[in-house]
Amino acid sequence: MKFNTSQLLNIQSLLIFLPIALLGKYVLDLDDVPVFILAALAIIPLAKLVGEATEELAHYMGETWGGLLNATLGNAAELIITIFALEAGKVELVRASIVGSILGNLLLVLGLSLLVGGIKNGLQSFDRKAASINATMVILAFMAMAVPSFFDRAVIGKDPLIVHEAPAAADAAGRELLFTEGIAVILIALYALNVLYTFASKDKTTPVTHEPAEVHHARWSKQTALIVLGLATLGIVLMSETLVGAVEGATHELGLSEFFVGIIIVPLIGNVAEHLVAVQVAFKNRMDLSLAISFGSSLQISLFVAPVLVFISLLFSENLLLVFNPYELISLAVASFIAAHVAQDGESNWLEGTMLLALYAIIGLAFFVLPN
């Protein structure tokens, strides 16, 4: 789905912040807060360009491989940001951003889509079967992330309910890492099977509608798309390093906790372009596509990005474990189940969107007031 010309120009005009951010960090030696803000603003149009280039390449690669490319690079900006955060040893920030991305898609994006679409079109309907499958997968993904969190204390021998000899520290750490790696492998396999099922059953499950499917006409050559993708990715790498380098000082100066930055700010930076697309198609009464974006992005994060980050973290000094704190788990549980419930009846309205947005605001406020 493409933005109209004015929207695209407005977003790409933010590219001016890329050289300003580099100038501010390396030449003007600005404080962390303005550097953080400038880098965040620069990542937004770069993420959009990655999406545009990916869509163009998908046109040349065919539907199956193009869809897989879109799924893989859909969260490229956030993936790069979190890799730099892992390199800097900010594991808690990475875990918070994983949770924040899922919450943002299930509550903020879906909520805005239902609200805008409901105000414009009234009661909206969508394919209940496809939405139910995605909703079930979201709940399963939450449970897969919750299991290692609940079992972690027992695995490392610190659960007071289980009486046994405490294992050596090295043995406990090894078992803990093995547990996370095993779950990561299962999640990646499940994601691959979900993609395979989506492609294999597309013709059988796609409902017949009166609105003709939108045909994408390539605007760039394959070479141009590859160049844009490479340059935009390079820009995201530069800005992600700048962003992560300034995040600690910026959070301290602004009085924000690392939880709040990971839960709210980082996901918004990396996914704002995709968020706008989901709301736009809901405004056009294409709720099947809007829900596919919201649920699909959540599944990409939980079943693909998070497990991949587990193995990428092995390259650095501190490993990423899929062990989340109780506040993150409670937020994920509530968001997963209420989003799944909304998708069960095949209909949506603006009031349901308001409920999801209210819950997102409550969770955001809760993480905002947490001390660092």
What layout of secondary structure does this protein have?
Elements: H1 5-12, H2 17-26, H3 32-61, H4 63-73, H5 76-87, H6 91-121, E1 124-125, H7 128-155, H8 169-200, H9 202-205, H10 222-254, H11 258-283, H12 287-312, H13 326-342, E2 347-348, H14 350-369
Antiparallel strand pairs: 1-2
Helix pairs in contact: 2-3, 2-10, 3-4, 3-10, 3-11, 5-6, 5-10, 5-11, 6-11, 6-12, 6-13, 6-14, 7-8, 7-12, 7-13, 8-12, 11-12, 13-14
Could you please describe the fold and organization of this structure?
By secondary structure, the chain is mainly α. It has a single domain, classed as NCX, central ion-binding region (A middle domain of Talin 1, Up-down Bundle). The protein contains 14 helices and two strands; from the N terminus they run ααααααβαααααααβα. A two-stranded antiparallel sheet has the order 1-2. Helix 5 (76-87) packs across helix 10. The protein is globular. The two termini are 39 Å apart. Mean pLDDT is 80; it is low at 1-9 and 205-215.
Overall 3D shape? globular
Beta-strand content estimate: under 5%
The biggest beta sheet reads: 2 strands, antiparallel
Tell me the series of helices and strands, N- to C-terminal.
HHHHHHEHHHHHHHEH
- What is the C-level CATH assignment? Mainly Alpha
**Derived structural class:** mainly alpha
Please give the domain count: 1
Q: How big is the Rg?
A: 21 Å
Mean pLDDT: 80
Segments where pLDDT lies below 50 for 5+ residues? 1-9, 205-215
As for the CATH topology, it is A middle domain of Talin 1
Overall number of strands: 2
In whole angstroms, the N-to-C terminal distance is: 39 Å
* Helix segment tally: 14
